[in-house]
Amino acid sequence: MRTWLVLTAMFALLACARPEPVTQIDLLAFSSTVSFSIYAPPDGFHDNVVPALEQRMQELEVQWRSFGDGALATLNHTLESGGCATTDSDTLELVLAATKYARQSNGLFDPTLGLAVDAWGFRDYDQIESVVAPKVKGKLTIEGTRICSDAPLRIDLGGIAKGAIVLELAQLLETFNVHNAIINVGGDLLVLGTRGDKPWRVAIQHPRKPGVIARIDAADGDAIFSSGDYHRRAIQDGKVTHHILDPRTQAPSTGAIATTVIHANPLLADAAATALLVAGVDEYEAIAAKLNITRAVLIDQELGVHSLPHTDIELPTTLTPAR
Fold it and tell me: Are 43 and 177 in contact (CB under 8 A)?
């Protein structure tokens, strides 16, 4: 049975000479920490809301993980044989969104690289051997409720699932009259409402050392998603590599080292952060335009900082490397 960790802390943030109560809840799910910062939570929050959040996260974890007997794993069993299958409406909707963003990003976000990700071994290992990843030739097609592949492939929703998760959890919070909160899934977050009479303030982390490069006064509905080569790193042939694959080569991307995207649609923000990372400095503006992204930050391989014109965040032009 899964052990769920609930850490509760109450702290006061001063504004206009009166305390602003914020409750912080940290839960373990999706192989990560899911944090909730709740402004003025309603009565019965811990007895009613927290168990409901835990239950929904358990359901989503089973539904969208790539192994086991959940909806995505069951679908992939068929697609790996080059066949057709149906799935539940939530998973179908997520796969449809993923394939839409794949088209709009010129394939730089690709949800069909599951076999290549597994071949590289990033799911389970800190040390990986030299790998020749399988060139995925299967084509995914969707007709009504049927999802088909014409050759073996595996859907990997890791580049979009966090967006769907924060949206699901936000909708659940709304049913309990929680309207002012931050939902943070492993560093990717959705902002709801305000922190009293002030906006929620969030930070963009430095990709190479502890600390932040910028702080954002986030608006209600802002989804702030990041992608970078600092997550799920591994050693290959004595060199550090990372898990985000360039669909064109099916090898770890080299376009940039970190991106952050701000958008009202969490699913799009999640997928776009990956696509822009793969695109790199030369292509990220064009890909952002195709995805209708107007606010984004990109850190290049030399720690140069780039942003889209409407990003409206105070940023340094270059970052200091780690010592």
Answer: no
Query: For residue 61, what are its two tokens?
Result: 């974890």
Contact of 98 with 111, CB cutoff 8 Å: yes
Q: What is the pLDDT of residue 127?
A: 47
- pTM score, whole prediction: 0.89
User: Which residue type sits at 179?
Assistant: H
- Residues 197 and 216: beta-carbon distance below 8 Å: no
Helix axes 266-290, 89-104, angle to 10 degrees: 20
Tokens 């790539």, located at residue: 66
Q: Are 146 and 245 in contact (CB under 8 A)?
A: no
pLDDT above 80: residue 129: no
Q: Which two tokens stand for residue 148?
A: 């088909």
In angstroms, what CA-CA distances link 87 with 57, 75, 90, 179, 200? 19, 7, 8, 32, 38
CB atoms within 10 A of CB 217: 14
Rounded CA separation 66/72 (Å) = 6
131-161: burial string, b at 16+ Cβ within 10 Å, e else: bebeebebebeeeeeebbbeebbbbbbbbbb
Any idea what DSSP says for residue 2?
-
